[in-house]
Give the backbone structure.
Amino acid sequence: MKLEALLLNATIKGLKGLFDVQVPEKQINFQKTRKDFKGDITLLTFPFASLSRKSPEETGEILGAYFVKNIDEVASFNVIKGFLNLEISDSYWLNFLKSIFERENYGIATPKSGKTIMIEYSQPNTNKPLHLGHLRNNMLGYSLANILKANGHKVIMANIINDRGIHICKSMLAWQKWGNGETPESSDIKGDKLVGRYYVEFDKNYKKEIRELMEGGMDEEEASKKAPLIIEAQEMLQKWEAGDYEIKDLWKTMNSWVLKGFDQTYDYLGVSFDELYYESDTYLLGKAHVNNGLKDGIFYKKEDGSIWCDLSEYNLDPKLLLRSDGTSVYITQDIGTAIQRFEDYSLDRQIYVVGDEQIHHFKVLFAILKKLGYSWADSNYHLSYGMVELPSGKMKSREGTIVDADDIMEEMVQSARRVSEELGKLDDKDVAEKDLLYKQIGLGALKYFLTRVDPKKTMLFNPEESIDFNGNTGPFIQYTFTRINSLLKKANGSSTDLSDAYLPNAKEKNLIKLICQFPEIIVEAGESLSPAIIANYCYELAKEFNNFYQAVPILKDEDRDAVLFRLALSKVTRMVIKTGMNLLGIEMPERM
């Protein structure tokens, strides 16, 4: 039985036997003992004072004595005001270490929850390459999928490719006008980058037309609608939705360029998907559901032929679902996609990992699904995350000022190369091994930096800070992992038979207590949908191991039982660090 469950049962039994009161579990609150108190786990006695008819301090003293007498795992206690601080016996920590020593899946839930959860992340547009913001999105989605799997759920990792709409037509139109038949092969440019250039080219010329119209006396809003380029792009979209052969053929060609480029980026980053959805397919499903909703009186049509949804019952403004020319809007495909997914997979939950600028969009989407009568509408959740900013400010894809995902990954790998060479850490390795390590360190630094911040917070990405081998970084944790590898290699297969004669000291117990928390950390990260909880736990564990490593002789102690115990503790620490970092999608090098 887990320690907290054991103490919980003992508390219920003790309160009944000592004070003849029955206390529900929700009133019993255990927490980690504060650093300025002596103990391992603390029980709050304030809630019991009225029931015991004694002060919180007296109640704590009576309960503490009961625990010491009746529970072998409790060695001693102290009471400070309403805090009953319990010190757990050394033998408990030794037995705990023995129990998990050979459990490679320690912390991972083995019983299946029976729940199926879909996580949608990435959501690229096929008019530009992935950028730094996409990297945060992908790492949040991918690591969260791993964490939910570790909690025993069946997880489907999904990606929606936004491959239709006015923004796609802008790139296509620009290529028609100024491309001169250019292809990724002819220009030796990655396909998504090439198409992105034409998206920027469209915006540059579109703004020029707006300025010219404004100089002719037109206001900015009218000029933005009547500029020839935007009108041509809108006409192209109408032709696309009408199935125009030439437009569709160009769309397929340019889409294939971009999708090939995306695959290369995903492969290098190390993320994957179980299901790919394409807006070019799902918008048709959405249009069908909108038209059915109109027939059923759920939606309404305006005089210009556009179809709308009244959301006043949800305190939301009316939402356009189909334009007057019959073309769909962004939310149209989301309606179709959501319905298809729940029908295909009987989902218990669907999580959208999308930036916080889309909070309103998802409120509207979920409200529309409710209006359509779907009982699972409340099973959808928008995990909104803050944007990634740079010291130089925000990114703007239309103006070509985004930080390209491929470029930032390559920069991180080169930074890892530079820092490693300056420190002389890899001098004894061959070229292939060095290149692999540079990638593991560089991408590990990037991924850790992107996941260590709570998803809801806007984050400032500092490449130089992220690659530091000291502090709260991926390379620091990776280096700790390889330090343990080196230690175990020096031990040269020492026996793993732990003696009951050796009892852990304070440094060792601190490390064991952190390891003991790992399963609860995984549960907490899954419940709060925050990979940052795993990331910062891995840092704390690595930091605690280094404190232990510096303070305690491991291989040189004359006490053989102490050596074996510390090697076992080191091995378990390594195992937990690797499991935690793998949940974040971070590879752990064997040597550094």
In short: Residues 394-400 have pLDDT under 50 and may be disordered. The first strand starts at residue 30 and ends at 32. Residues 121-389 form a domain with the Rossmann fold fold (CATH 3.40.50.620). Residues 168 and 181 are 18 Å apart (CA to CA).
